[in-house]
Design a protein that fits this description.
The protein is α/β, with parallel strands linked by helices. The chain is built from 11 helices and 16 strands. Helix content is 35%, strand content 20%. The strands form 4 sheets. Strands 4-8-9-10-12-13-16 form a 7-stranded parallel β-sheet. Bound molecules: iron/sulfur cluster. The site of iron/sulfur cluster has 9 residues, from strand 6.
Length: 347
């Protein structure tokens, strides 16, 4: 079990102190003895140490920035949701394949916002505009939002906000396991709580500073028991020696835990599954090798198929015969262990 996240340093925008949460956070970290420093902008933070890319990355992952979100716009989040809900950026985990390492720049520090009421008021307006259609918001498009929850309570507040919104729906995904504070939230079934899962070999090799699969499965069981719609994202799926037995055991153990806590099974609305096979761009590969020079991620172009993507960023995916093999395997496992779940996609 990983310990809760404690940053090595905190930066805060002075304006954040005008909000009760900002004041509480800064004073709380000062009491804990964490160095706290004002910063003029949460977008441009200087003072994170690191003499080379690997160090800069590591130190950024230990840095928390407390800011005020000023933009009234939310980014779109097609196809999985209508909008990204901006709660947190980045996370303290160090997964070698994480796409945020490429998109968040050299120093992917963790950022939280203290003006949550204002952010949720924008969400309420967007829901109203599309009503009576449902509007979906994704809370983990640029982060894992769980590790900072112990400090901010932002997810709980957001889940309860959506509990009151007849036409609003919330979803997020996490690899972390500190779910207890969210179990009593009045969610009304409007939040889908998803866990990113992988087999032990993949977690040990590539998902540094994240909880073991067994801990995630136990946390997911608690979430199901609390009545949330639940989801699992098995990603990235890798083909490596022994992959079938490892993934089979992972799914078997997950099904066993859920069955224990929700005997009699679940409906397709309650449980969804998503599968994403491993893929990479050359830009991501270059960045990964800067931060993790000894990475053993399988990234040999000659073993992959090139697939043209948007904006000229082509991806290297598994060749069609491997993809077919993976897809067939997971379809069989779903039939065996999760016959009543809804498979959203396999890509
Ligand atoms: S836990 Fe998620 S957001 Fe954090 S490093 Fe891993 S993949 Fe990225």
């Amino acid at each position: 079990m990983t310990k809760g996240f404690v940053p090595s340093r905190v930066f805060f925008e002075p304006k954040a102190l005008d909000y009760p949460l900002g004041k509480m956070l800064v004073e709380g970290f000062q009491t804990m003895g964490v160095p706290t420093t004002p910063t003029p902008s949460h977008n441009r933070v200087t003072g994170i140490p690191g003499a080379n890319p690997a160090q800069a990355y590591r130190e950024a992952k230990r840095t928390l920035v407390i800011g005020v979100r000023r933009s009234e716009k939310f980014q779109s989040c097609k196809p999985s949701a209508h909008y990204q809900l901006p709660l947190v950026t980045s996370c303290p985990g160090m997964c070698e394949y994480c796409y945020l390492a490429t998109t968040l720049g050299k120093k992917p520090y963790i950022r939280i916002y203290v003006n949550l009421d204002e952010i949720l008021a924008i969400a309420a307006k967007l829901i109203q505009e599309r009503s009576p259609e449902l509007t979906y918001f994704e809370g983990a498009a640029t982060s894992d939002p769980l590790p900072t929850e112990q400090y901010t309570g932002a997810l709980k507040q957001t889940i309860e906000f959506f509990g009151h919104e007849e036409h609003g729906r919330f979803r997020f995904v996490t690899k972390f396991t500190e779910v207890d504070s969210l179990l009593s939230a009045r969610h009304e079934g409007h939040t889908r709580f998803r866990f990113s899962l992988n087999c032990a070999t993949v977690v040990q090799r590539f998902e540094h500073l994240t909880p073991a699969p067994e801990d995630r499965i136990v946390a997911a069981g608690k979430v199901l028991k609390a009545g949330y719609p639940l989801g699992f994202i098995i990603a990235p799926v890798f083909r490596f020696p022994g992959w079938q037995e490892e993934y089979r055991r992972l799914l078997e153990r997950t099904a066993e835990e859920l069955e224990k806590l929700a005997p009699g099974g679940w409906s397709p609305e309650q449980l969804t599954l998503e599968f994403i096979s491993h893929r990479y761009t050359l830009k991501a590969k270059a960045r990964i090798l800067e931060v993790f020079p000894a990475s053993s991620l399988p990234m040999a172009e000659e073993e992959r198929k090139f697939k043209y993507g948007q904006f000229g960023y082509g991806k290297y995916i598994y060749p069609p015969e491997t993809l077919a093999e993976l897809r067939e395997f997971f379809q069989d496992q779903v039939k065996l262990y999760f016959p009543a779940a809804k498979v959203e996609y396999f890509i």
